[in-house]
Amino acid sequence: QVQLVESGGGLVQAGGSLRLSCTGSRSIVSTGYMGWYRQAPGKQRELVATVDSDGSTNYADSVKGRFTISRDKAKNTVYLQMNSLKPEDTAVYYCKYFHLTVGDQWGKGTLVTVSS
Description:
Shape: globular
Helix content: under 10%
Oligomer: single chain
């Protein structure tokens, strides 16, 4: 099992920025797949951005050019830098870790609210 703790959510005006953090209970960022997902009220959870163990990244079309996923191996932490936020980015953001030995592991989420 891997415990994941997200932080950094909050209320921000449209056009503003936030940085989310996801810290793992043990070494995760260099051994598996890490991703940020979000779930808006009444909608399904969707992928936002991922970073693989080799550092390759992937983004949802809706956030390309605005969000950046990065990792700090020494801190066992993955970040999501979110710029030019829009009201439609409002959601609970979840961190996910995947490795063959433990399967999918999820954090409890952090709420991001973007006001217009």
